[in-house]
Amino acid sequence: MFNAKISVNNWKSFYTSYPGKDSANKHLTAIRKMTSFGMQAQDCFAMLAKEQDLLILSFSQNKTELHIFHQPAVINGLTDEPTHHCIALLGMGPSASPAEVNVAFIQDIDIEMPTWVELKGVQGDAEAFLMQLKVAEEVVINEKLKGKSMIPIPLILAEAFFISPKKDPTSNGLTFLKAMSDRRNKKSLVRLSCMQFSFAGAQQASYYLPSPIVSQNPRLLQTGATFYTGMQSWHTLLIKLWT
């Protein structure tokens, strides 16, 4: 856990103040390709670790909520365990803490989905999103969610996630839908994938989206905390410069 006394030490402020966030939103096809179906999970994570303006949407460990992790990094292992490890931050405020990402849980998914017209048709109706949307028996007319069990999202959708009052898949799916309806290029692959990911999460009885986050190695997490403490000092300065 970081020093909560630093009031500006807030990752949400960092991302909402990020000067290049609008340009990042323009490269949605490239963002989508970072977690393409069939790519090695380790390679996906290494690509994401090079980006400063993307966050990652996945299912949480409690299996009832979606969450965002961010600032992915690959660090050297411990002296007695030299394997490289993938880490990221959980939480958007001063209490953000490092967690290990188990790339074995970043799995390929290839799931039949309701069509875009059907997804869009629910508007703000949570019951319709959760209960009434069905995957058509005729596979040829369905959309497809094909990629990984995590999705990198640009800041425009991260901001939608921040304002969602609840973090369950249904609430987030409807918030993403509203964010898409308010902007041009409404049916981009990234935005549609977030909607589909939320739908799949809401239908956990049918689709299993494993959480890639584990936090079982105290020594590794302490190493991660040291790594992020240095990084966040720099980010605190950037926030002051941007704002």
Query: How many domain regions?
Result: 2
Poorly predicted runs: 1-8
Radius of gyration: 18 Å
Largest sheet: 6 strands, antiparallel
Please state the average pLDDT score. 76
The strand line-up of the biggest sheet is 7-1-2-3-4-8
Global geometry: globular
Kindly report how far apart the N and C termini lie. Answer: 25 Å
Helix content: 40-55%
Q: Count of DSSP helices?
A: 10
Number of strands: 8
DSSP strand (E) fraction?
15-25%
> What is the structural class?
alpha+beta
Element order: H for helix, E for strand: HHHHEEEEEHHEEHHHEH
Structure, described:
The model is unreliable at 1-8 (pLDDT under 50). A hairpin with a 6-residue loop joins strand 1 and strand 2. The protein has 243 residues and is α+β, with helices and mostly antiparallel strands. The strands form 2 sheets. A 6-stranded antiparallel β-sheet has the order 7-1-2-3-4-8, sandwiched between helices. A two-stranded antiparallel ribbon has the order 5-6. Helix 7 (155-163) crosses helix 8 (169-181) and helix 8 runs antiparallel to helix 9 (189-202). It is globular and about 50 Å long. It is 40% helix and 18% strand. It has 2 domains: 11-106 and 210-242, no CATH class; 108-148 and 155-202, no CATH class.
